[in-house]
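Page 37, continued from 36.
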């Protein structure tokens, strides 16, 4: 199935379902039909919510040209058809920037939450959350705020402080070299890009590894991704070849 992303200059052609009216359209993307059916009944009882649609596959949701973009997208991180990060990226590129996105998932490790928020999620809740808290999260994101579930909030805050301490120990040049190493650039390529000698780049590279207490470049890249120091960019999937 081919997915075409709409460019940001096309956003004005969208009518953001519900945000200009008294009720907001919600779309649920989760492979658990019993969950989406239950949530639909609950959400339709909220005065802020109008129509509620559901999909079990992220690609099907994105490819559904008959549906108007929702005011709120509530999605799992582990879904059919694509990863949660891919759906989040595609939704942020193809749909109105005013649309709110809430992640509701069993995947609640700190780095996943950070990636989701950095990529544009407005809220993140574990599936163990109560219906009352989900309603509160919806009200908060409608008001323009971000919402992190109570059960995962403390871990996220503690991790942020830890990561900030790590980053503070890196100089601006070391951070620059770290980004380029993680993106796959060689020492010679980095030296050329930064107009430095290969010896100098090697020094910064070694200094970063020493400060982060890793011994191999592969370990450095893994550490950087796990601690949110480097987030790889997702590429638009190649268009499928049509037979004949």
């Amino acid at each position: 199935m081919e997915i075409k992303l709409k460019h940001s200059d096309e956003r004005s052609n969208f009518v953001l379902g519900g945000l200009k009216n008294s009720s907001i359209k919600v779309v649920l993307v989760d492979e658990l039909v019993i969950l989406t059916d239950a949530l639909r009944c609950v959400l339709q009882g909220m005065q802020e919510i109008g129509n509620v649609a559901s999909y079990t596959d992220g690609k099907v949701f994105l490819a559904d040209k008959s549906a108007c973009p929702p005011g709120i997208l509530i999605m799992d991180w582990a879904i059919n058809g694509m990863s949660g990060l891919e759906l989040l990226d595609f939704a942020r590129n193809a749909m109105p920037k005013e649309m709110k996105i809430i992640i509701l998932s069993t995947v609640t490790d700190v780095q996943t939450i950070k990636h989701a928020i950095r990529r544009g999620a407005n809220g993140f809740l574990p599936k163990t959350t109560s219906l009352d808290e989900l309603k509160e999260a919806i009200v908060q994101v409608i008001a323009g705020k971000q919402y992190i579930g109570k059960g995962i909030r403390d871990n996220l805050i503690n991790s942020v402080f830890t990561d900030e301490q790590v980053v503070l120990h890196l100089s601006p040049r070391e951070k620059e070299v770290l980004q380029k190493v993680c993106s796959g650039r060689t020492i010679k390529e980095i030296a050329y890009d930064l107009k430095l000698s290969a010896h100098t780049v090697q020094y910064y590279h070694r200094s970063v590894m020493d400060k982060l207490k890793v011994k191999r470049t592969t370990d450095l890249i893994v550490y950087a991704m796990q601690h949110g120091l480097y987030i790889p960019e997702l590429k638009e999937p190649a268009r499928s070849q049509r037979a004949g």
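The first strand starts at residue 24 and ends at 29. Flag for discussion at group meeting. Confidence is low (pLDDT under 50) at residues 1-21, 235-244.
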